[in-house]
Each structure stands twice: as structure tokens, then as C-alpha cells.
Amino acid sequence: MSQTVPDISVSGDWVNVNTATGIAVGAAILITNKSGITSAGAWVILAEGAHPDAKSTSGTIIGDVNSQYAQATVPSGSLAIWAKCTVPTRSVSLSVQAL
Fold first, then answer.
1. Of 5, 11, 46, 71, whose CB neighbour count within 10 A is largest?
2. Burial of 38 (0-12, 13-18, 19+ CB in 10 A)
3. What pLDDT was estimated at residue 31?
4. In the prediction, which pLDDT does 65 show?
5. Across residues 56-80, what is the average pLDDT?
6. What value does the mean pLDDT take over residues 24-49?
7. What is the 3-class SS of the chain, one letter each residue?
């Protein structure tokens, strides 16, 4: 297990996971949804690379906000990782850990 970093909170705006956690771009990371919020149609989305367009919903879904403890593993060598919730009024807590 690697050193624990504080959880990050994401809502309807894209958050750079690497910047928010201090984990270097390209490092392998594990992202876990720690929220249990109920909201129909709310999903946690991850995108890789340049800052996604604000309205974009393209990317990898790691689970709806009811999927507490759903996880995504980002392999080493990846570009910058971005996360957001598809419902702007909801906030989701994500645990991020370098592998």
C-alpha cells in the first residue's frame, strides 16, 4: 500500500486528479468512489489527456454515485487524469492512491 493522500471531491466541473492529489502524471493509480449519494442518472466519469470540454461526458464510467467503492485502475504511463460527476449539484468523494 502506498502513502495515503486526502480524498478529493468532484462535482460537475472537471478536476485534474493528478494536481488535486500531488500524484505525478504517468504514475499508476487506483481511484475508488467513496460516496453513497442517491441521484438518478449521476455518474462518475474519468477522462485522460488534455482538459476535457466542460460539457463533455466522454470518458470511462467508474460507477454511478450509488456504486460506493467502485474502482478504476489507471495504468502507469497514462496522461493526466480528470474526473467529474455528471450531476453538477452532487459532490462525490474519491479516494486516490498511487500504486
1. 46
2. exposed
3. 93
4. 54
5. 84
6. 84
7. CCCCCCCEEECCCCEEHHHHHCCCCCCCEEEEECCCCCCCCCEEEEEECCCCCCCCCCCEEEEECCCCCCEEEECCCCCCEEEEECCCCCCEEEEEEEC
